[in-house]
């Protein structure tokens, strides 16, 4: 793809997504539909992306962004069920879909059919978690959905690579496959953990928010490439690094957190839009290559059914004791596939037999799950009448810790004022104390009318107080008193309050 074509693709994808947002249409499906329509126009250039480019530059930031929003504390508390859901459903889906695809489509080699199974095995929890959060689904269900999504991305991609090795003619015994999988998981996880701790340790000592943000942007790509060079799971390395970096973010600079939040939201929208648009643009070529028929459409529908049934059966057979029947039902039905599956399918080497079938079936299953689960999940949650008591608990926990944080910040203010004697005007101290108690954000208007020395004292003391508030909330998160979602919301509020009075 030439640079002008790439620019046209990006601009067009973002334009379509903007229109879809204005019209309140599903952006993913709209991009696919528009891409398919555009692909029918004559004389279009090639919009294909190199598989290596997709693996190295599309997957890492998507996984890393999702990992940053995950909760290390909650994942650790639910490590066993997340572990069961990260690997078990992937293996079961890969086997069931692979065998079914080979039986339904005899021209599809079994090894290539297993590649398809690995491609559509990972779920995309972003949409599901968004719906669940809006409808106040219990926290444990959302933690399980988000945690399993990270884990099964890594497991599925590792199995996908092993299946491609077999599909392209190499021999691999069961024991070799199991050992390769374990090596990829262990080494990939270690690389991600080391990278997460090292990058955080370096960033907190830099003192430059822009440079710290730049290091954060580089981290997923570096983790992925290091792990791949070691023949380990690059996706798992990125996921582990992202979870640890997100957990340690409260200890960094507020400017860095605000910048990174905006950067990764933008990256998510950009990459997801481009991937869905590319698949839509390529669908006509793919359909022509496989020779679409009613038999093929029926086989794709049957594979969609297998995908849905395998997940529901697994969720109920390996039912987590921390979830009641309603939570288990929601988790079982939240099996939407998304951008990861499409990106991995597109990254399948062109030399693999049956690649076009993998792309076509992945497209059909992804669209099918988005339509099926995406249109019915919210209705199912309402019909189950899931209690929203946890939302009230979150609000109560936040109010209690906020009270403690304000008290601690006020005490710190008193100590600082006492240490400095009479150098800070009393009305400045009173204003700070009032802002701490009422969380008002009108500091800049006051500062514009003050002398430089007073403004500096105001900034210095406010920064100290906000630091103490952050520490109280982080300690409450680490002690399990509040959820990471509460912490992120409060941190953003505190960061914006501090940013509102910062001067160059």
From TrEMBL:
Q: Which residues cross the membrane?
A: 53-75, 82-105, 111-133, 154-175, 181-202, 263-283, 295-318, 330-347, 359-384
- Any single Gene Ontology cellular-component annotation: plasma membrane
Regarding the membrane, this protein is recorded as: Multi-pass membrane protein
Q: Where is the Cation/H+ exchanger transmembrane domain?
A: 12-381
- Extract the coiled-coil ranges from the record: none
Chief place of localization: membrane
Q: Which keywords, in A-to-Z order, does the entry hold?
A: Cell membrane, Ion transport, Membrane, Sodium, Sodium transport, Transmembrane, Transmembrane helix, Transport
GO MF entries = potassium:proton antiporter activity; sodium:proton antiporter activity
Pfam families under this entry? Na_H_Exchanger
Please, one GO biological process term? Answer: regulation of intracellular pH
Q: Where in the cell is it found?
A: Cell membrane
Descriptive protein name: CPA1 family monovalent cation:H+ antiporter
């Amino acid at each position: 793809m030439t640079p002008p074509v790439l620019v046209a693709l990006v601009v067009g994808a973002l334009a379509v997504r903007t229109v879809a947002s204005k019209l309140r249409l599903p952006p993913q499906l709209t991009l696919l539909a528009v891409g398919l329509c555009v692909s029918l126009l004559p004389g279009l250039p090639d919009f294909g992306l190199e598989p290596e480019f997709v693996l190295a530059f599309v997957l890492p930031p998507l996984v890393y962004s999702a990992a940053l929003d995950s909760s290390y504390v909650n994942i650790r508390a639910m490590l066993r069920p997340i572990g069961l859901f990260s690997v078990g459903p992937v293996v079961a889906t890969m086997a069931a879909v692979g065998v079914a695809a080979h039986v339904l489509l005899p021209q599809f080699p079994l090894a290539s059919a297993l590649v398809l199974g690995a491609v559509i095995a990972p779920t995309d929890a972003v949409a599901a978690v968004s719906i669940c959060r809006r409808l106040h689904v219990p926290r444990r269900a959302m933690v399980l959905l988000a945690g399993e999504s990270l884990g099964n991305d890594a497991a599925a991609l590792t199995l996908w690579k092993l299946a491609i090795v077999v599909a392209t003619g190499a021999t691999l015994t069961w024991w070799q496959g199991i050992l390769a999988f374990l090596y990829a998981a262990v080494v990939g996880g270690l690389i991600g953990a080391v990278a997460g701790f090292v990058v955080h340790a370096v960033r907190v000592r830099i003192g430059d928010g822009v440079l710290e943000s730049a290091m954060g942007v580089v981290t997923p790509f570096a983790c992925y490439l290091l792990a791949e060079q070691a023949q380990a799971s690059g996706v798992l390395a990125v996921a582990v690094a992202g979870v640890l970096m997100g957990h340690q973010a409260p200890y960094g600079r507020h400017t860095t957190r605000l910048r990174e939040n905006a950067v990764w939201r933008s990256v998510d929208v950009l990459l997801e839009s481009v991937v869905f648009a590319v698949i839509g643009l390529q669908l006509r070529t793919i359909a022509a290559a496989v020779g679409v028929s009613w038999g093929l459409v029926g086989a794709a529908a049957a594979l969609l059914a297998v995908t849905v049934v395998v997940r529901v059966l697994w969720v109920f057979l390996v039912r987590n004791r921390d979830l009641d029947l309603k939570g288990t039902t929601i988790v079982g039905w939240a099996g939407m596939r998304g951008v990861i599956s499409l990106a991995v399918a597109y990254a399948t080497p062109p030399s693999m037999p049956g690649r076009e079938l993998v792309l076509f079936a992945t497209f059909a299953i992804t669209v099918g799950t988005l339509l099926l689960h995406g249109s019915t999940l919210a209705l199912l949650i309402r019909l189950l009448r899931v209690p929203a008591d946890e939302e009230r608990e979150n609000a109560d926990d936040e109010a209690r810790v906020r009270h403690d944080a304000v008290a601690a910040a006020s005490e710190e203010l008193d100590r600082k004022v006492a240490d400095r004697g009479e150098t800070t005007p009393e009305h400045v101290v009173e204003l700070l104390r009032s802002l701490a108690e009422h969380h008002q954000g009108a500091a800049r208007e006051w500062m514009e009318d003050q002398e430089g020395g007073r403004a500096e004292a105001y900034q210095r003391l406010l920064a100290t107080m906000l630091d103490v508030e952050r520490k109280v909330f982080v300690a409450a998160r680490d002690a399990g008193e509040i959820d990471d979602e509460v912490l992120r919301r409060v941190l953003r509020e505190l960061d914006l309050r501090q940013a509102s009075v910062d001067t160059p």
